[in-house]
User: Fold this.
Amino acid sequence: MRSKLTGYGILGLGLLCITLVICVGFGSVSVPAREIAAILAHRIPVIGSMVEPQWSTASETIVMQVRLPRVLLGLLVGSTLAVAGAAFQGVLRNPLADPFTLGVSSGSAVGAAVLIFFGWQFSWIGIFTLPVVAFTTGALTLGIVLWLAREQGKIPAESLILSGVVMQSFLGAIVSFLTAMSKKTINEIMYWTMGSLNLRGWSYTAILLPYLLAGLIFLWSQARSLNLLALGEKQAAHSGLHVERTKILTLLVATLMTAAAVSVSGVIGFVGLVIPHMIRLFTGSDYRLIIPLSALGGGIFMMWSDLAARSLLAPTEIPLGVITAFIGAPFFGYLLYRKKKVRESES
Amino acid sequence: MLEVKQVSKAYGKQQALKDIDWKVKQGEFWGVIGPNGSGKSTLLNLLSGTEMADSGEVLLLDKPIRSYRRKELSRRLAVLQQDGLPPVSFTVREVLEMGRYPFQNWRGADMDEHAEHILEDIMQRLDLTSLADRPLSSLSGGQRQRAALGKVMAQQPEIILLDEPTTFLDIRYQLQFMELVESWRQQDGLTVIAVMHDLNLASLYCDALLVLDRGHVAGAGCPQQLITPELIQRIFTVNAYSVPHPDHGEPQLLYRKGLSQTTPDEF
Assistant:
């Protein structure tokens, strides 16, 4: 397990760095990759002092003030959503669960949209207002979805997805309604429905980072519990797991992470679904690998998606949620198809 | 070791267990027998702490079972379910390591530094070494049940509860499984409580039997006293001869054709 984690981890980190440099390099003004690497390295303590500054201030401004915040935010949003998705799948033992299909993203978006509609984003508790409200509405949505799907104490995979879809459509309608009613803030609410990383400064990155780090550490420490849950709840309880407590804590943390991500980037679907499954294809079902590697994979995936979103039809920007859906939805279909095949071969 | 005091449990209006008293000493091998719906599974759930009694108490080492923390309980008491382990893609070694869960801290470090060695030893004893890196989904039912036993052994319990552990196994694996449990008991002084369907197997391996009938204790004692045509007739409403086993004289049942005249209430 350890050697596997080290191997994939180094590979992932390498890919992450390369992606970072490429994504920062792309844009209307070209900055050579070597210059970007030097500018970035200059900011890292210890190594930084060894790099001679040989670049124009214009390049540095573009890299540090415009592109890097956006690319890093993509990295964080992608990691957060992917880790949350992996946790939802593990705790609900449902391969189709993720923040988007469970309606948690949409629930958070409704909270955010209401705040923006009334211009309350920074009232009450400052920059934490949006994440806290988004978390509350997200958690409420999750509660309703789980309650709708529950049959005799069990939650069948199909009815969970169905109730998720129902909630998602309903909440989507609320957001659309607010969009239609709002005149001056129309663009801002629009962001929440399809997701965007456009024009987000460093402050957004700073909001999200602690949620990602704390959530990642907590969920990683729960990885062995999620593995035990894969053997069945009774089996897990007999092995010393506090099943109900683990489930509730994990769901809450994953919801909080989703809400934090949604509150800075809007609803971006399929990342939490696709990434953990891609990781599974390589590593198998051990959550001690899936959780940390999903963080890397989600970040890489989101940086590339955002690059596509802003460069494919430049200067027009494609909503980020459209890009991830173009990649994610076919994969979702493939999962359904494969599940059907497995069931057919079993019967 | 384990003491059940005046325990009753009902599900809605249905009384599953009524005023059960029972004492299990360290190192004993108990079989729990009785027809379907007699309360065997309920009793096992109460003993394992997954359900709470309505009245009365279950004591493990003189302490009420509900006063144990989940991990602490799992270090003393382990449960092997009837359906064993699902066909997941975890390897045998990984599943055995999951048995160490109650000994691990939040980072996954084992409080016993010889944990690795313990797992190797278990795999040796259960003949699992060659299967160590195979995923559970690729194993046969018998192999999977052996892995399940290995996971339970990794918990290093003082007492194990077996819930009809041989139901899905063919006769060779049934015997192999019982032999493994028996040798573990002899080596480590383990206490075993097994819910058994197969009365002949129960008679062969158990020192003592607890007979349940409609939520009451219908008898407790050694197989010689209990495996009699009269009791079998009364509890299971089945006609049978009881003959001593040629090897060591344990009573074995030979069932007779034709159903008994008196049928249980529910039919």
In short: Chain B touches chain A through 28 residues (CB under 8 Å). The CA atoms of residues 92 and 132 of chain B lie 5 Å apart. The mean pLDDT of chain B is 88.
